Automatic annotation (TrEMBL):
InterPro entries registered for this protein in UniProt: Cbl-dep_enz_cat, Cobalamin-bd, Cobalamin-bd_sf, MeMalonylCoA_mutase_a/b_cat
Domain (B12-binding): residue spans on this chain: 593-720
Similarity comment: Belongs to the methylmalonyl-CoA mutase family.
This protein's GO CC annotations: cytoplasm
Alphabetized SUPFAM superfamilies for the sequence: Cobalamin (vitamin B12)-binding domain (SSF52242), Cobalamin (vitamin B12)-dependent enzymes (SSF51703)
GO biological process, one term: propionate metabolic process, methylmalonyl pathway
GO MF entry, a single one: methylmalonyl-CoA mutase activity
Protein name: Methylmalonyl-CoA mutase
PANTHER family, per the entry: METHYLMALONYL-COA MUTASE, MITOCHONDRIAL, METHYLMALONYL-COA MUTASE, MITOCHONDRIAL-RELATED
Species assigned in the record: Veillonella denticariosi JCM 15641
Length: 720
């Protein structure tokens, strides 16, 4: 130690202990009094409290004195109801799984992309299947090949997809659709053909028949058949691949339909409870059921709400499984999270990177088991190397640079998060009980209850965006006028279909017709022996039956499910995107646009705030905004407006000058430009609004205006 350091150390020992007694201890009441002063007469409750879509009111400050009863006592990670996580060591020993999906259309391409993901930091092979495959259809008769993911029809396709996968090191994550039985049979055949063991398989090859039912409104099989096949899959996996989960409970259909977090979790839990009962009726024990299940949830925009959602989920699932008689170790929930598709935007898509980051952050802090960060261009096109790399690196950074693998449960004891989790628990449990009281999720969906609840929240979200109470950067606010849309890079469906059809026909040309007929007959006869169905499918697949042929044989004599109202997937900005695209298409077609002239009155300081507001308001729809440095007289402003050829004139000044400026200017504009729409920037006092309207003002724009409706009306008037 240097002499200077030694001297400093000696002097520090002589310093008197620091006391904070001179500072008055703050109280909530004193803090509130200071806030009310700062609000200058504004309503404390209106300004400082926030109502969420979940019906929870967020308070401006959370203190131990006010929220002590919400803080759990003596609760530890990996124990009890797993509020603080299902693992005692959190992510310190085993990190969350990095599960970046690939959606290449062809099996070989998907294989190469997934192996590359593993090399670059992913730990899970997350394969998205196309619509045809998830409905057990071949490319000749199914939906457009490759739409949404990878096309599979045969064992050869599976072999190409799974080539060089290290099942011991890297789990699978595959959402199979309403049934995973056929895919499991093909995967089993593929694994055995490569001299590997099905016992090495882990992760998920999962079926979610109710989730598909909600999304599509119907199933190609009855629900009873779907549950029968689910039971076969669960029993087969428990014996042949005990580390592999085969039951998926996804909240995506609700989240993408606009649901709030209470609805998403409650309806998913009700679905899980239904699966438990159906499997138990088919003689599957609760331990096997518990180990077969995985939940998938979207991670939305409300950072702390998403953390609280995952905490509440664990508590309620433990409560449900306890009621079903599960041991404590079987009450832990396994959760896969994915960044929200609902909140991604087509315009200003690079902002999706920021949305991804906060959503992924909340999922990790919330304690999920695996995470999927969707590429920023998800709503526009299939991902490419660049978009996948950026998405993957968000997770890698959270693990390394952010060091989120420790500490264990970083939000444990937070007055805000724990209070929020407790309130969410109460609301989720109440909604879950409401579903159970209707006879369960199947009965509730037939009645249309969840659909109506989700639809109401979606309408509220759209309304808040329309009024810009909610802000979507680059869409309903801060639009980028120089932006060019990303190239959607559409695949040539005809070429792709021809290629896949040729591959399948070449493969089938080597099939033994007698063996095919025999295999189909065995599948049609089916079996009631638990788990045996997967073996029959495996044998059929080895005889070169396609997915469609196997499904047709299994469905012999079966009927389709009852039709229900589907929950249509949406994105929160889709209405504003359609608004802007309508303008862009009109501009391209006619070389014209809605021209908005800013009638700026007086010097720049007088009109600039409202001129800037108006510019941002109309640029949301990509209208042409004609700007200027201001006009001294109303006559000058009216003349300039006429010469501009504007469709819309927006008067911009201050409230104090409007009574003198607006009546003569609006009147002259209407007299000399009879087809013009006159808009006043700013919300008028109630006593002056009739005067302004009588003078010729058609509408008013302010922070309380319905931006979407006003812009849409102007487009209609223009003939777009």
């Amino acid at each position: 130690m240097s002499d200077k350091m030694a001297s400093n150390a000696a002097n520090s020992e002589l310093l008197a202990p620091v006391s904070f007694d001179e500072f008055e201890k703050p109280t909530y009441e004193k803090w509130k009094a200071e806030v009310e002063k700062a609000l200058k007469g504004g309503d404390f409750h209106k300004k400082m409290f926030t109502k969420t879509y979940e019906g929870i009111t967020l308070q401006p400050i959370y203190t131990p004195a006010l929220h002590q009863e919400k803080i759990p006592k003596g609760v530890y990670p990996g124990a009890g109801q797993f509020l603080r996580g299902t693992k005692a060591s959190g992510y310190i020993k085993d990190s969350w799984g990095v599960s970046q999906y690939v959606d290449e259309s062809l099996p070989k391409d998907a294989n190469h992309a997934s192996l590359y993901e593993i090399v670059k930091g992913s730990t899970i092979h997350n394969i998205r299947l196309d619509e045809a495959t998830r409905h057990d259809q071949d490319v000749q008769v199914g939906a457009a090949v490759g739409v949404g993911g990878t096309s599979l029809s045969t064992v050869e396709d599976c072999a190409q997809l799974l080539e060089r996968f290290n099942f011991k090191e890297n789990p699978l994550y595959i959402e199979a659709g309403a049934s995973s039985a056929i895919l499991l049979g093909m995967i089993s055949a593929t694994v055995k053909a490569t001299k590997k063991q099905t016992s090495d398989l882990k992760g998920l090859v999962g079926a979610d028949p109710i989730g598909v039912w909600v999304k599509d409104g119907a199933l190609h099989m009855s629900l009873d058949t779907a549950f029968d096949e689910m039971a076969h899959s669960v029993i087969w996996a428990s014996e042949q691949a005990p580390q592999l989960k085969t039951v998926l409970i996804s909240g995506d259909a609700y989240a993408n339909g606009g649901a709030n977090d209470v609805q998403e979790v409650a309806y998913a839990l009700a679905t899980a409870a239904c699966y438990v009962r159906e499997l138990a009726q088919r003689n599957v024990d609760i331990h096997t059921i518990a180990n077969s299940m995985m939940f998938t949830f979207s991670l939305g925009a409300n950072f702390f709400m998403e953390i609280a959602k995952l905490r509440a989920l664990r508590v309620i699932w433990a409560r449900i499984m306890e009621a079903f008689g599960a041991d404590e170790s079987d009450r832990a929930v396994h959760v896969h999270g994915r960044t929200s598709a609902f909140t991604k935007t087509v315009y200003d898509p690079y902002v999706n990177l920021l949305r991804n980051t906060t959503q992924a952050f909340s999922g990790v802090v919330g304690g999920l088991d695996s995470l999927e960060v969707s590429p920023f261009d998800q709503p526009i096109r299939k991902s490419d190397d660049f978009s996948r790399r950026i998405a993957r690196n968000i997770q890698v950074m959270l693990q390394t640079e952010f060091e989120l693998r420790q500490p264990v449960d970083p939000v444990g004891g937070s007055w805000y998060v724990e209070t929020l989790a407790a309130e969410l628990c109460e609301k989720i449990w109440a909604e879950f009980q409401a579903i159970e009281a209707k006879g369960g999720i199947v009965a509730a969906l037939k009645e249309g209850y969840p659909q109506a609840q989700v639809k109401a929240v979606l309408a509220e979200r759209f309304k808040n965006l329309a009024y810009r109470k909610d802000v979507a950067v680059g869409n309903n606010m801060y639009a980028n006028m120089t932006e060019e849309l990303l190239d959607s890079k559409p695949e040539n469906q005809d070429t792709l279909r021809q290629k896949r059809t040729a591959q399948i026909e070449a493969y089938l040309s080597g099939a033994d017709p007698d063996a095919v007929v025999k295999a189909q007959a065995a599948l049609e006869a089916s079996t009631t022996e638990p788990g045996a169905l997967i073996g029959l499918i495996e044998l059929g697949a080895l005889q070169k039956l396609t997915m469609r042929q196997i499904r047709k044989a299994l469905d012999a004599g079966d009927i389709s499910s009852e039709t229900i109202e589907a929950i249509t997937p949406h994105r929160w900005t889709e209405q504003f995107e359609a608004l802007r695209m309508r303008t862009e298409e009109y501009k391209q077609r006619t070389k014209d646009n809605v021209k908005v002239f800013l009638a700026n009155m007086g010097p720049i300081p007088q009109h600039k705030p409202r001129a800037d507001f108006s510019t941002g308001f109309f640029e949301v729809a990509a209208f042409e905004v004609i700007k200027n440095d201001g006009h001294e007289t109303t006559a000058d402003a009216a003349k300039a407006a006429r010469e501009s050829g504007a469709d819309v004139v927006v008067i911009c000044s201050t409230d104090a000058t409007y009574p003198e400026l607006v009546p003569p200017l609006a009147k002259e504009l209407k007299e000399t430009m009879p087809n013009v729409t006159v808009i006043l920037a700013g919300a008028p006092p109630k006593d002056l609004e009739p005067t302004y309207r009588e003078a010729g003002v058609d509408d008013f724009i302010s922070v309380r205006a319905n931006c979407y409706e006003i812009l849409h009306t102007l487009q209609d008037k223009k003939g777009m």
